[in-house]
Amino acid sequence: MYLRTIIILCIAVYLLILFYGTVIGNYGFNEISEDYNSMIYTMSDNPYPQDIIVAKLLPFPNKTKILNAIEYQNPKVRNFAVMATTKHFKGIRGYSDYRTIIQCFAVFKEINSRWNYVNDPKDGDYIATASESLEYFSGDCDDHSILMAAAVRSIGGTPRLIHTKGHIYPEILIGSMIDLEKVNYLIKNVLFTKESYGKKIHYHIDERGQVWMNLDYTATYPGGPFMYEEILGALTLN
Questions:
Q1: Which residues cross the membrane (predicted)?
Q2: Which pLDDT does position 230 carry in this prediction?
Q3: Mean per-residue pLDDT over the chain, rounded
Q4: Is the pLDDT of residue 233 over 60?
Q5: pLDDT computed for residue 19 by the predictor
């Protein structure tokens, strides 16, 4: 009898806390519903855990030039990223904790829908700055990675560049495995439903247990398949 009374009181207090959280805009009924949906969806459709195959780490190619080219404080880059957030996913409600990631995915959608792959000159690498690539949305993989990293960084995201054999591509920091559950649900059910239908979400886990998701120009949705598995180096923009 006493146990049942205690359980009923606990449930009532919990409901009151959720109601209060909903009223003041903190964790409430909407947030618990989002958590439940994400958990259930991930149980039935897990993201694909990509093993990191790390070869002998080499110096990141053109590191200084690439860092200088990632002009995330350039007004043109910032304005482009802001434009992308007003063009894509602006009407998404809820998921306030993932607003920055959703906006970075808007940048991904805008860049990858417009990107035109063009080779470098035969006599060497041409490193285009982010603002330069905004002119025509054209270039090779390092030009794409530079623009993506700069635009993502300009609106608060954390990007990094991955160096593989003959290829460089950008990734974005998602966070913990719990964050991955939410982002997996968002990609498959809210943001990129057609592009990701029936496909897996690919990601890397670094030495700190943090999840990074592929934003390569070959991907039509965040977390698309990797072109190359062997990682030769990583360049993170903190």
A1: 6-29
A2: 81
A3: 84
A4: yes
A5: 54
Structure tokens given for 223 = 């977390």
Sign of CA dihedral 138, 141, 144, 146: negative
pLDDT reading at 65 higher than 50:
yes
d(CA 116, CA 144): 9
Q: Are 133 and 145 in contact (CB under 8 A)?
A: no
Give 69's Cβ-side CA count (13 Å radius).
22
Paired with 96 in beta bridges are: none
Would you state the structure tokens that stand for residue 142, as one six-digit string?
């390092």
Torsion sign across C-alpha atoms 43, 48, 51, 52: negative
Specify the amino acid at residue 66: I
**Which tokens in the block code for residue 110?**
């805008």
Cβ atoms of residues 19 and 28 within 8 Å: yes
Cα–Cα distances in angstroms (integers) from residue 8 to residues 3, 15, 78, in the given order: 9, 11, 52
Residue 93: pLDDT band with limits 50, 70, 90: confident
